[in-house]
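Case study: Acyl-CoA thioesterase.
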Amino acid sequence: MSTQPLSAEVTMTPSFQDADPMGVVYHGNYFRFFEEARRVMLDKIGYNYREMQASGYMWPIIDTRVKYIKPIPFDLTVRVEAKLSEWENRLKVDYVIYNAQTNQRLTKGYTMQVAVCIESEEMCFVSPKAFTDKLAAWSTNENNV
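Here is what the predicted structure looks like once written out:
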């Protein structure tokens, strides 16, 4: 594995429709921000959701946590970082949301996903080779750059 963990970041500006009546991002919408950063991260290794499905696996979220540190106004540009912290038996992705202008941390959280064989609908107790091979190839390329 590369000395640097697989990670990605996206910059987003929540819109009015993301807000609650107080003008701050509704707590359930934070998961959409996490999802976008996770999508970009998995694209880096060539294992996006279409590729997961093609490899015979789905990866449902089985656990999640969000710590709301400061509210996010609907028009504030934020930077969302995603970092893969576990991958052998499940995917654990850690997230931090920052104010893009001040770099102040606003939120942190994580999601955990497990591989489920689409054909048998059985949960895998180790990450499938289809995923670990993609991660290993990315790691090798990172170390050779």
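For the exam, be able to explain this: Residues 129-144 form the longest helix (16 residues).
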